Amino acid sequence: MESDNNGPLLHPALHPALPPALPPTLPWPGYRPHPGDAPRDCPLCPRLVAFRAESVARNPLWWNAPVPGFGDPDAWLAVVGLAPGMKGANRTGRPFTGDHAGTLLYQTLAKFGLSNGNYAAASDDGVTLNGVFITNAVRCVPPGNAPASQEKHACRPFLVTHLASLPKLKIVIALGGTAHQSAVKALGGKLPKTPFGHGAIHPLHTGVTIIDSYHCSQLNTNTGRLTPAMFETIFATALSLR
Ligand code: SF4
User: Fold this and answer.
1) Residue 173 exposure: Cα atoms within 13 Å on the Cβ side
2) For residue 44, what is the domain's CATH number?
3) Which of 51, 75, 120, 165 has CB 3.0 to 4.6 Å from 133, enough for a Cys bridge?
């Protein structure tokens, strides 16, 4: 804080010329509510509601709410993740935006011509998606990135609505086992017939095909479990099955 030598230092929070910063009311500029988006105050998972409140107390200017789906309403491809990351989508309000997992995902989408604009790890970077919609199995950030079974179950109707609202949907890329299970259930498939496996392709009776991938998390990429080349192969497969 600087002094102009004309009086005592005034804390910025007390300065009449500086309005108080407010938490975001929209996840990104131009956001239009989607029928599959959970209400901002969704009360269905008490543990996650409490965790959201803790995050609000620590970082009141973050999004700290269920993260909406993001993408093209004419999408033929849906990408289903696990849940918002604490410092990623929970902070920025847009799926996979702002953390390591998002860097690889948005880089890969751009490489295959599935996005427009330059990803800048912020929900106001102006990126749009071409034929792709991104959503999650669970819409609120869970402690330890580990939603409980009842939380996955409670949030599934929102995933069902997201996927059902895409009339041109042909392919779902499921990132990790939880996303796989939620996507199979949301699309009316049978889990025993469709075990998760990286690169596995599961055509469902509904005409939608699920392709499994290891999650593009920092842990998986740092350990080499998932390389950028492996991830690109998943998207190349999706394009070949389009
Ligand atoms: S995880 Fe889904 S169902 Fe649970 S509180 Fe959040 S938005 Fe609601």
Assistant:
1) 29
2) 3.40.470.10
3) 75
